[in-house]
Protein: Probable succinyl-diaminopimelate desuccinylase
Amino acid sequence: MDWKRKVLDAIEEGQDELLELCSQLIRFPTENPPGDSREISAFIIEYLHQAGIDTKVHAATETMFNLISTLNGEGADKSDKHLIFCGHTDVVPAGDLSRWDFDPFCGEIKDGYMLGRGASDMKGGLAGLIFATVILAKLNVPLRGDLSLMIVPDEETGGDLGVPWVLERGLATGTAAVIAEPSSPQHPTIGQKGSCWFEFTVEGTPGHGSLQPIVGDNAIVKAAKGIEALQRLWDIKPDIPEEVKEIIRISQEYARDREKAGLAYQVFDHVTVNIGSIQGGTKVNVVADRCTVQVDSRVPFGVDYRDVLDRARSLLLEAGIESELKPFGFQGNANWTPAHEPIVSQLVESISEVSGEEAYGVLQWASSDARHFRNHQIPVLQYGPAELSTIHNFNEKAPVWQIIQCAKVYALSALKYLGVEGMEDETSLKNSNGAASEEATTSKH
Structure:
């Protein structure tokens, strides 16, 4: 049985069902905050049930459900490999609806694009993971190892109730994982920068606004001095480990030349600083007595996020601000999965086989749930359909062809990594494109 061809043909023939599944997922308004996965979870559970796949529900709260569905490996040569397909059901809020050209929860297809909040981040990828798993189940593919769908409700607000909640409780485990986060169609992300979110509050003295700056001490003005000082976090010099210098170079080249990302290539070896929110004052004619600033800083390889916090404290003191600096949200260092890990090389091979084009992994300048898998020593990478410029933006969309391609890549990666009963090893699943892909991957990394 040529399982590779049988599976890929089934996905090709079932692409209308795949796209309809994606549309239905988008129609659930799973904005986080507030975060409520009950309705979309019920839909996914029933969809999997129709394919003969059972789902275990692990409720982190009354409204946030983690779902785990497993296809068990079989045969006399059953392996101990266990692949996790991971995706999140929550999306960022749609925001000002007047700035959308279409209903953000329409799930419609127009001009070759799937439209709606979550089309790229990440219901297009989630649909692909679910559909690929269903195809494998319906065809009764005799996988040697276990394949689990791990669908979580919380990623967009820090993810505390999602992946880490599941892994820390031992509710799921694996030897490798694929997350369907948005990526370039030829370049999965195999590493992410670290994160250092923090806030500080400046106290002032109120007074009548008409007497400022003679009377009162304006907390907002003081906070502005701190904001300016924190820009110098960019100047921290990383001590980049030798083993990641090449992947950083590749990622910079990719961002500069392939993505036409302008100056974005510079962030891979710098600490970035974003002043995300400012809350201060009580009324326009009252001198502000308090101002709280929240900062999103991303940390490159060769810098510890705790050193970023220490430097931020020093910079605020130099600006005359004596305030407690409070970490919150994402905290952690840069992390990656080397290109030689089987799940990485095999997914890259699968991209080349499906697309007929060169593929290789790159770093991501943001952070993600991938760090939690790596904290549990589970090799992981990210690959998903996307129109990258629309992620977390108005008019979010994803190319239909990428949704279909990703579903094929997910299924083929599972065959390669887990193996199929009766086949000697995953090399039986390669064709000439796959072999060329392996050579390209080696040369790039």
